[in-house]
Write a structure and sequence with these properties.
The complex is a heterodimer. By secondary structure, chain A is an alpha+beta fold. Chain A is built from 7 helices and 6 strands. Chain B contains 4 helices and 8 strands. A 6-stranded mixed β-sheet of chain B has the order 1-3-2-4-8-7, with helices on both faces. In chain B, helix 3 runs parallel beside helix 4. Classes of the chains: A alpha+beta, B alpha/beta. Chains A and B meet through strand 3, strand 4, helix 3 and helix 5 of A and helix 2 of B.
Chain lengths: 152, 175
């Protein structure tokens, strides 16, 4: 997964999700070539790319100041529509497939997930059903001092 | 989707632990390290077995990326033994065209060699089911889950008579 095939994911995110990032005053933090965070005041979206998929997770700081990560898959499956998925198009190369996936997320997040983007967490009420994971050490370091604690 | 998942679960032969993606796997020279410092999410200790080729599987983003980097990110299509060292799949990027093509031309033959040799197979990522299971990926066209590369690898090993041992975090021959 070198940059020869895939541009830095953070750069691609800044372009493809540009309008969402601007509207919700988010910032993009690079983790490495294939992983990046889109950070709001009380949450972060972690985008991780590999050759055949783009994985997105929601990260929050819980009321014990610990970071917790939840897959966004169920939310995407519930909310994204065929109109969002139509943005995928017909990409051929690995990089084009990544860009196509980002287009799907740009549409789905902007049109179906305004609550998520604005920091509302009611959709995450039953946290145990969202597959909690521990963020990596690198992400822990990058998010130090970021994300206000959740009130449950 | 339920039917697909049910079929997968039947093939896997269990409902809890077992599986992950294959994006990056490598073949390292015999002179490579016998133990890696990276601590994978499964908790398995990445230590090569003397006299054998030790194969490592896992999800790329979560574990294999760091493992491949620690091994020097050596790209190779040599799927032969790496006695006393590690075997991970890490072919040149340009050889990957589609998931189906990559599995047929590179991933399956590479894994088949590992099974035939009787490699110890360390699972850097736990092959478990659940909302965030690394055995599956979300298809952005259909909006449904399908097997990830790691999931295909796990399924292949299950079909080859191996099962995940949650104690050793390795794939072992079923009795």
């Amino acid at each position: 997964m070198s940059t020869a095939i895939r541009d830095d994911l953070a750069s691609l995110l800044a372009v493809k999700l540009g309008s969402v990032i601007e509207e919700y005053r988010l910032k993009v933090i690079r983790v490495d070539d294939v992983e990046a965070l889109v950070v709001g005041s009380n949450y972060a979206l972690r985008f991780a790319a590999d050759r055949d998929s783009l994985d997105v997770a929601y990260i929050e700081r819980n009321n014990r100041s610990r970071l917790a990560s939840y897959t966004l898959r169920p939310l995407v499956m519930q909310r994204f529509t065929p109109e969002d998925r139509a943005n995928y198009g017909h990409p051929v190369t690995v990089k084009d497939r990544l860009l196509a996936s980002l287009s799907v997320y740009a549409s789905g997040l902007a049109n179906r997930c305004r609550d998520v983007l604005s920091g509302d967490k009611s959709w995450l009420r039953r946290r145990d059903s969202w597959g909690e994971e521990n963020p990596s050490f690198a992400i822990e370091q990058l998010l130090q001092g970021e994300l206000s604690e959740s009130r449950r | 989707m339920r039917a697909v998942l049910a079929n997968v679960l039947i093939c896997f032969g269990l409902l809890f632990v077992s599986a992950g993606t294959a994006s990056g796997h490598v073949v390292v020279a015999n002179s490579g390290p016998a133990r890696l410092t990276f601590q994978p999410s499964s908790g398995v200790i990445l230590e090569a077995t003397p006299g054998k080729t030790t194969t490592i599987l896992g999800n790329y983003s979560q574990d294999m990326k760091a493992i491949v980097n620690e091994l020097g990110n050596v790209k190779s299509t040599d799927f032969g033994p790496r006695t006393g060292s590690f075997n991970v799949l890490n072919v040149p990027d340009e050889l990957y065209v589609t998931p189906k093509q990559f599995w047929a031309e590179y991933n399956q033959p590479w894994l088949s060699n590992a099974v035939t040799r009787g490699d110890p197979i360390l699972m850097a990522t736990q092959p478990q089911f659940g909302p965030a299971s690394k055995l599956f990926r979300l298809n952005d066209v259909t909006g449904k889950l399908e097997l990830s590369g790691f999931g295909k690898e796990y399924l292949y090993l299950r079909q080859s008579g191996l099962r995940y041992d949650p104690i050793t975090k390795q794939m072992v021959r079923s009795p």
